[in-house]
Amino acid sequence: MSSLSLDHTHDPSLRSWVASSNTNDTDFPIQNLPLAMARAAGSSEPFRPFTAIGDQALDLVAAADLGALPAEVADVLRACVGQGLNPLMAAGPTLRRRCRHALVAALVEGSEGGGPARLSAALVPQSTLEFTLPCRIGDYTDFYAGIHHATTVGKLFRPDNPLLPNYKWVPIGYHGRVSSLGVSGQQFRRPLGQMKAPDAEPPSFGPCKRLDYELEVGALVGQGNPQGQPVSIDQAEDHLFGLVLLNDWSARDIQAWEYQPLGPFLSKSFATTLSPWVVTMEALAPFRRSFSRTGDHPQPLPYLDGAVNREQGAVSIQLEVHLQTAAMCAAQVPPHRLMRSDFADCYWTFAQMLTHHASNGCNLQPGDLLGSGTQSGAQPDQGGSLLELTQGGKQPLTLPNGEQRTFLQDGDSVTLVGFCEAPGHRRIGFGPCVGTVLPAITG
Asked: What residues are paired with 189 via a beta bridge?
């Protein structure tokens, strides 16, 4: 059995004794059970592994101490305290599935051994927790696998040749900055940088004027590979641990000046926001889709092509971006949805991205982060960034309260939302990924 397989844990009729997990609109029914690192808000205790169930969170170490988890699983979860989920990631998919099966058995309605009486002491409201990054992330690679984004942005700068010749052949990526990764709720300063106005001869230095978000999905690596040992496309799924939402904030004016010839640098390194809950590959099994290329696109080279990837490599995730300005927040106006797209449109699967990343012998490690690149839809109103939605700042967006935006202003808060739906299966979600822009430090 693999992370692609359906089993009893995906049964849509399963209900939990945690009542809030049984509502139709929850992100966290018993069929999901994502993982995160958290602690009591305001405390100085070490962060510990939790799983989400409805609006509650189950302390997995406390559950292990109460005898709800197999000894082998319990030992690995205890090793995560203060360290992140890396020990569980390194342990591989078989142990991760044992953990999932044990949690379903403990949380299901009518569970043997008296679930509520046994585990209520290990259950806390999510609202009482503070979160940190789910693991120690040693390396972060951001791919450029959203073809609709790449085409739209390419047309802005190269109308006659929007996609460069290698785009349809190789998963393009660059190495990002780990130190500025933050978890949902991240607040960051508007970056300073060097930029050049079209009508200016020398460049200038100052606060970014064209600050943007990027709607992405992130994959966290589970098992690593030894240096020099590639990972085949047929093995790649076993090296993927789970997915998160990812906002790769971008300073478009700094980027335009610096990115040639070596790509993004300071325009991307100031902040990247992740959702705290990792939705495991097992939970995503019901939402897998076939991966195929139409006749006008080249087929992947053999090392990026496999039967399993063709049959189930894509994942359908409904993705949204919501914006709340400082004025909206003050007036208690909820965030406004700007767009929606489907991650199934991604030009490369995460298995292909991981395989390509390791194809030269690069040694991936547990907890490494792979970003998907901006996930836009095919329609103009499905842009995954303001750069697309405003056509490079030429067509301002008008918000419900009358404010307009071409790019982000100080005080703006952006929320990424992701959820999966399929006939005959329970809806699952990722929880919000929120980041807020603070003024630049210029003094």
From this structure: 438
Which residue is listed with tokens 């009893």?
Answer: 8
| pLDDT score of 114 | 59
Query: What's the burial of 424, exposed, middle or buried (CB within 10 Å: 0-12/13-18/19+)?
Result: exposed
Beta pairing class for 433-438 and 186-189? parallel
Tokens of 171: 């998963």
Q: In what order do the strands lie in the sheet with 48-53?
A: 123-125, 56-59, 48-53, 35-40, 129-132
Rounded (to 5) percent helix, strand, coil in the chain:
25, 25, 50
Statement: residue 156 has pLDDT above 90: no
Triad 334, 274, 108: Cα angle to 5°: 85
Residue type, 364: L
- Distance (Å, whole) CA 422 – CA 425: 6
pLDDT at 112: 65
Chain centroid to CA 280: how far? 11
Highest CATH level, class, for 140-438: alpha beta
Backbone angles phi, psi at 28, to 5 degrees: -125, 65
DSSP code for 191:
P
Radius of gyration of the chain (CA): 22
- Domain boundaries of the chain, sorted by first residue: 8-132, 140-438
Q: Which CATH class is domain 8-132?
A: mainly beta
Q: What are the structure tokens assigned to 239, written together?
A: 């090296």
The pTM is what? 0.97
Contact 24, 9 (CB under 8 A): no
**Beta-sheet pairing, 140-143 with 369-371:** parallel
Pull the structure tokens for residue 210.
């064209």
**Considering only CA atoms, which of 441, 281, 252 is closest in space to residue 370?**
281
Peptide bond into 70 cis (omega under 30): no
User: What's phi and psi for 232, nearest 5 deg?
Assistant: -70, 160
Give yes or no for residue 4 having a pLDDT over 80. yes
Q: Using the 8-state DSSP alphabet, how is residue 405 labeled?
A: E
Residue with tokens 């500025």, as numbered in its chain: 180
Q: What is the pLDDT of residue 260?
A: 84
Q: What are 300's two structure tokens?
A: 């992947």
Q: Three-state DSSP class for 86?
A: helix
Active-site positions? 149
Q: Is 367 left (phi over 0), alpha (psi -120 to 50) or beta?
A: left
Q: For residue 379, give the DSSP letter.
A: S
DSSP string for 26-84? -S--TTT--EEEEEETT--SPPEEEEEETTEEEEHHHHHHTT-S-HHHHHHHHHTTTT-
